[in-house]
Amino acid sequence: MTPNGTTTNAPIPAAEADAPSNLAGPITLSIDIGGSGLKAMLLDSLGTAVSERIRVATPVVPTPEAVLAGLGELSAQLPAFDRVSVGFPGVVKHGTTYGAHNLHPLWAVGFPLQKELERCWGKPVRVGNDADVAGYGAICGVGVELVLTLGTGMGAALFTNGHLCPGLELAHHIWRKRDRTYEDYLGRRGLDKYGKDRWNLLLKEAIANTEALFNWDFLYIGGGNTKKIDFELGPKVKIVPNENGILGGVYLWRDQA
């Protein structure tokens, strides 16, 4: 339903075909909601991909109803699944969204995304912050590990010995100037405004700042803009594939069981 309690008009079709019987179940439909694209893939219980990664463009006006319609388009292209994991680019509490700076204001008023998807698909659903989900797919599970995702915005997730420290919103923390945030400098807006060379200097500075703040043992950097990084990363910093935003989906069912 929509935030005012009405039901959305956009149907979200579930796939009709049976899931392949030789796969290790349960099969998870893992979804990554991004500012420019909606991505999906099926994973087995070990987190191994058992389908192709498919993508549709994020709606130009990404209201909840429009994004739900896009997710329905994705699910209709895949075989059957047993459960769903969703990485959402904003604040999520108990499956409800309370902010999405790179989507639409309607996501910030308490949209029950998890319940809405369960109603539409008739499957159990778990929704988490997208950087948290990507982090599950990247970390080793030892010590303090920080994950940064560089895309339309900037995501951040912190883990200790493999367990998520929920609620981190580093992207919107004030940095360098009173009216600027980490995302203003390191997200797509910052890259476009300052250019690649300046953006790399800012990222290098941010890495040093986060190490001093969190005393992380390892830092993972993901997202589409990692291809813009042109400086030497230290031995405790690793670039991880953009696909981790989907591959980490199965872990929402492990760490939060």
Task: Provide structural commentary.
There is one protein chain. By secondary structure, the protein is an alpha/beta fold. It has two domains: 28-133 and 247-253, ATPase, nucleotide binding domain (Nucleotidyltransferase, domain 5), CATH 3.30.420.40; 138-239, 2-Layer Sandwich (Nucleotidyltransferase, domain 5), CATH 3.30.420.40. 25% of the residues lie in helices and 26% in strands. It has six helices and 14 strands. The chain has helices at 64-75, 113-121, 130-136, 182-186, 188-214, 244-247; strands spanning 28-33, 37-43, 54-57, 83-88, 91-93, 96-99, 125-129, 144-150, 154-160, 163-165, 174-175, 177-181, 218-222, 237-239. The strands form four sheets. The protein has a five-stranded mixed sheet.
List its salient traits.
disordered N terminus; alpha/beta; 5-stranded mixed β-sheet; 2 domains; 25% helix; Nucleotidyltransferase, domain 5; 14 strands
Instruction: Provide the spatial order of strands within the biggest beta sheet.
Output: 3-2-1-4-7
Biggest sheet overview = 5 strands, mixed
Radius of gyration: 18 Å
CATH architecture of the largest domain: 2-Layer Sandwich
Judging from the principal axes of the Cα atoms, what is the shape? globular
Strand content: 25-35%
The string of secondary-structure elements, in order, is EEEHEEEHEHEEEEEHHEEH
Task: List segments where confidence is low: pLDDT < 50 over at least 5 consecutive residues.
Answer: 1-22
Total domains, how many?
A: 2
Q: What is the C-level CATH assignment of the largest domain?
A: Alpha Beta
CATH topology of the largest domain: Nucleotidyltransferase, domain 5
CATH superfamily of the largest domain: ATPase, nucleotide binding domain
What structural category do the secondary elements indicate?
Answer: alpha/beta
How many β-strand runs?
Answer: 14
Number of DSSP helices?
6
Q: How much helicity do the residues have?
A: 10-25%
